[in-house]
Amino acid sequence: MISKMAGGIGLNVHRIRATGSYIAGTNGTSNGITPMLRVFNNTARYVDQGGNKRPGAFAIYLEPWHADVFEFLDLRKNHGKEEVRARDLFLALWIPDLFMKRVEKNGDWTLMCPNECPGLADCYGDEFEALYEKYEKAGKGRKTIKAQKLWYAVLEAQTETGNPFMLYKDHCNRKSNQKNLGTIRSSNLCTEIVEYSAPDEVAVCNLASLALPAY
């Protein structure tokens, strides 16, 4: 309904299981975020805005510790297999300060699955750093890379596709006047507002235009 009425949608996938994660209910493994995002992509194309005037607009946010982050950065690229692309989505990174500290020092960065390392999307600042480093020390990460390797992959994706957008998780939460409600996990499509949302609390941004000479 939002897309049908020309609304943009922002959502996060930080807590979606990474590729290869065990699924107890089926005794199988997860296909990661890409197949799900392709469904969103096709939904945006199907539920267009204003009677085929333009496709629906979805912005998808992901934190850079997620084990599928490299596949995420490739989603809009013009080359590669079509079944791992979602070119109609807008991509965004929700970046903790710790990642930028590691980039600055060319330190290590550990990629994790939210199912195996829970809680990272639900905290920020010192609490996030303590939890992330606890998982690192416990060896619960999927893969360790140089932070600058991921940073250069981000720059390459931006050069080629104009995405991902960049928002800074810790700063957004520290400055928010809604911090008493909980951790904010993403922005909206246009990245100009930051509001708290939850399963029972949907954040909404309304846009309006005024023709001042009419007054």
From TrEMBL:
InterPro entries: RNR_lg_C, Rrm1. This is Ribonucleotide reductase large subunit C-terminal domain-containing protein. Residues 2-214 form the Ribonucleotide reductase large subunit C-terminal domain. GO terms for cellular component: ribonucleoside-diphosphate reductase complex. Belongs to the ribonucleoside diphosphate reductase large chain family. GO terms for molecular function: ATP binding; ribonucleoside-diphosphate reductase activity, thioredoxin disulfide as acceptor. GO terms for biological process: deoxyribonucleotide biosynthetic process. It comes from the Eukaryota. SUPFAM superfamilies: PFL-like glycyl radical enzymes.
